Amino acid sequence: MEIELLKSLFLKYKESGLNHRYITNNHIGPLLENMANKLHVETIGRSVLNNPIYGIKIGNGKKRILMWSQMHGNESTTTKALFDLLNTLLSDEVSVNHILNSCTLYVIPILSPDGANAYTRINANQVDLNRDAQDLTQPESKVLRDTFNAFKPHYCYNLHGQRTIFSAGKVNKPATVSFLAPAQDEACTITSNRKVAMEVIAVMNEVLQAVIPNQVGVYDDAFNLNCVGDTFQSENTPTILFEAGHYHNDYGREETRALIFMSYMSSLDYISKNDVSGANFESYFKIPENEKCFFDIIIKNAKIVEGKSEALTDIGIQYQEKLIDGKIHFIPKVEKIENLDAYFGHKMIQANNLEVFNSEGKLLKVDYENVFVMIDNEKISLLPK
């Protein structure tokens, strides 16, 4: 699909009821009620704390695609983009009708409603659902497995969010969107169904490169059968991991949301129009692997006085995401005080060989949480814009 068409569809059908990072059943429930007369919505199971897990079926085509989001409750960007996608597919746009004629989508918008409520990676039993694919100890894991067995998808979209620490290679470029065609064996063999997933990822990457050049990464494909993607891939279903990452000054992940929407649309368009064989998989390997090269903030050239000696160092600060009164707050925390020449900062502050103090007039130390710092009696905010 053309870039300008994708951009216009997003702006026209973006779901206004979902914003920022905190997305729960309370947010999507009213939206699902409004859609109930246009598509099939059902409760497919219950979480540990007895919250409903919803399933949505849309389309009439032979190609079946299973999509699930918020397996980790604090990874909500892909959920927002799912509702943008649903709004678009439910519209009267002639340019998208072929997707529903060729494909049937089954969407689980929030697999871990308890984790979403608490804004945590784990469920209410303190289990990471993405490490429970084999043991199936949790009700949410069983819901996904049962849905997979019943729907028998031809493709799986495993939808996640990633931290701001990731770069697209060892360069000063954030991994704003990342993908992976998971391994299906210890040898990470490039199997036929992995090639299919790689070919679809390559199509999405080509689209994204026109919008965010050099800001797309892929994850290491080390095999772990306890992970859902690896499990489904090992059962010969082409599976694609999506990771929504950081865009400059976009801590609410609204710019990234648009890019994930474009990824959904371009991939579904491609699948609907082609019998994807995996023959065009090789450009997948041109995408750089993710590296952990970023801090949210780096304060450069801070003076450290120890006894009678002075030295210069850097201060690396990472935001801690905390749920307070129903909103996500970003709390700056000092992670490292050392030479950080090998790292990049989403925000850079020059200390200019001066000491850096916190709000209480104390020199910064590792694990300090500060909303601002003082350099040469100047108060500098550390909060995102």
TrEMBL record:
Residues 18-271 form the Peptidase M14 domain. PROSITE patterns: PEPTIDASE_M14. Its cofactor is Zn(2+). Keywords: Carboxypeptidase, Hydrolase, Metalloprotease, Protease, Zinc. The keyword Oxidoreductase does not apply. The active site is at E235. GO terms for molecular function: carboxypeptidase activity. It comes from the Bacteria. InterPro entries: Peptidase_M14. Belongs to the peptidase M14 family. This is M14 family zinc carboxypeptidase.
